[in-house]
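Researcher: Good morning. I'm working through a list of sequences from a screen, and I'd like to move beyond sequence-only analysis. For each chain I'm collecting a predicted structure so we can compare shapes side by side. This is the next one on the list. No need for commentary yet; just the structure.
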Amino acid sequence: MQPVTRRGFVGAMGAAGVLGWLPDLATGQPGEQAAADKTVRLSGDGIGLEPRAYAALLNQLCRQADVEEDNYLLGGEMAAFERQWATLLGKEAAVFMPSGTLANQLALRSLAGPRRRVIVPEMSHIYNDTGDACQTLSALTLLPLAPDTATFTRADVDAVLGRTAGGRVATDVGAIVIESPIRRLSGQLFDWDEAKRISAFARDRRIGMHLDGARLFIASAYTGIAPAEYAAAFDTVYVSLWKYFNCGVGAILAGPRELLDGMFHVRRMFGGNLAVGWPAALVARHYMDGFLERLQSAVQVSEAFYAAIARHPKVRVERIPNGTNLARISFAGADPAVVAKRLAARGVRLPGASAGGTITLGVNETWNRTTGADLAGEFAEALG
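Model: Good morning. Structure tokens for this chain:
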């Protein structure tokens, strides 16, 4: 009997110990948590797959195809998945990363090289939500622009470059980051025309451009600009896999082959190598197919709902300027908790309210399980 290695044990348990006995629950169309699940979730970017449904879906996908296991994210299903992403984003290469935080940092350290200054949006995830990872782990100096706003301008960038050039010690800017949509600004978009101007300006000066496009496909659903068209203005682009492709883990970093070849060594240096990545690749690919069309359909449902519910005397709707899938509502003379309980009984999950009573709604694929008119009717009944 051959000894069981750690990787072999994980693979055996994943494929046989789990998948062999699970019921085949996830037999619906792509985007469905399970065939019987009609719940409309009014928050989140994804459909909220619960553990049993996730495992059943993985079981189904493994039955449908002969999956070739990867080896520490190399080869097999992962190699095919990365090639698909490179083509989808119009880039030469793509690399799977276990997290967006790592994808962003490895892109920036590679783009910047010896020029250690990096321009970032002041409201960006990179600047606010990574514990100074770029500064601490990669010795990058982040230069934040445009406080409390989604868009900085080419003139803003030019001013930073001028100030840098005028310093007594040469400290060149090596990379510029644009995040769009911006989570901290409730999904506001970076102005696309300004982004293209900044990109052209940066390329003339051989400064790397990176797109934190965690929610890039959500942006495309709202603007009609294809992901590859967005990506063309940047050297590298990161896209989240778990946020709306429901795979639980992972990110894709795409860009030039010269930059990404050998990136798996840096990924391992940062502790970012997983024993296998095929489960995430399988589930993400399942939901990628037709995602934009399904989300655009959900957007139409949401627009019809907002137009209808805004006429209700107890409801106030606040749209996010230049926003995407988030909007805010509040109730006059109605307890949000009571409304939420009544909606839950009708198969509609309302997120919790803030201290001031405002509720942030998020459009996702589950909105396709209803119509705008029907959803507004459910709210009217729940409001009494």
